[in-house]
Amino acid sequence: xxxxxxxxxxxxxxxxxxxxxxxxxxxxxxxxxxxxxxxxxxxxxxxxxxxxxxxxxxxxxxxxxxxxxxxxxxxxxxxxxxxxxxxxxxxxxxxxxxxxxxxxxxxxxxxxxxxxxxxxxxxxxxxxxxxxxxxxxxxxxxxxxxxxxxxxxxxxxxxxxxxxxxxxxxxxxxxxxxxxxxxxxxxxxxxxxxxxxxxxxxxxxxxxxxxxxxxxxxxxxxxxxxxxxxxxxxxxxxxxxxxxxxxxxxxxxxxxxxxxxxxxxx
Length: 266
What we know:
The chain is of the alpha+beta class. It folds into two domains: 6-99 and 250-265, Trna Endonuclease, Chain: A, domain 1 (3-Layer(aba) Sandwich); 106-220, Aminopeptidase, CATH 3.40.630. It is 29% helix and 30% strand. It has helices at 9-18, 58-69, 131-145, 149-160, 206-218, 236-241, 257-265, and strands at 23-27, 30-34, 46-49, 75-81, 94-103, 124-127, 166-173, 176-185, 189-197, 224-229, 245-255. An eleven-stranded mixed β-sheet has the order 1-2-3-4-11-5-10-9-8-7-6, with helices on both faces. Helix 2 (58-69) crosses helix 7 and helix 3 crosses helix 4. The longest helix has 15 residues, at 131-145. The N and C termini lie far apart (51 Å).
């Protein structure tokens, strides 16, 4: 089995996570991602560029995205590259930077239980399997991320539809969820998704311990674990502690709907 292309790990694992609902159409120099049942889903209806664009090429790509999906919604383009994006700020545009990390196996002890600075972890990590467990997970995720519950329920329903292609764990403290996270994958890749810790329990090693256990339950020597994290909020620290290393960057540029409309009408 060929090894996954390390230059496009975020793109490949995005497709794994979006497989139940999204459709991909190859074009010249880019791919169109569509999520027909959720046309308002910004990150489910966008263009994925084969190569990083030059700065002066962005307006044309954003216009193409606006023409593809309609000007009443933000125009979105995305790409990957091995190095950080060093362009100056782009007026009227939103640039999102994510660090892509990858590794073949977790470290043996990502959190040292003998370290007095690390509070004792919850007594129980449980795998999410039943309808009630998924419902509890959705409510926890919606609450802790301040996200609409109906939207969260749809999103987690897509993960659940992956069947054996996903595995979710929750950390329980007296039967109350205090952390959660999942892996979606195939024969070559595993991707961390939706790692969430209760606000009052953050920075105590919960997420690292939970993600480490996810890897121990799923990982094989011939599979690559991938995480796409926001370095601005320190999310990459969890994955670095597990032995994952930087493998590149994923960039997403959004143009407001009003801008896309004005350019088209000009």
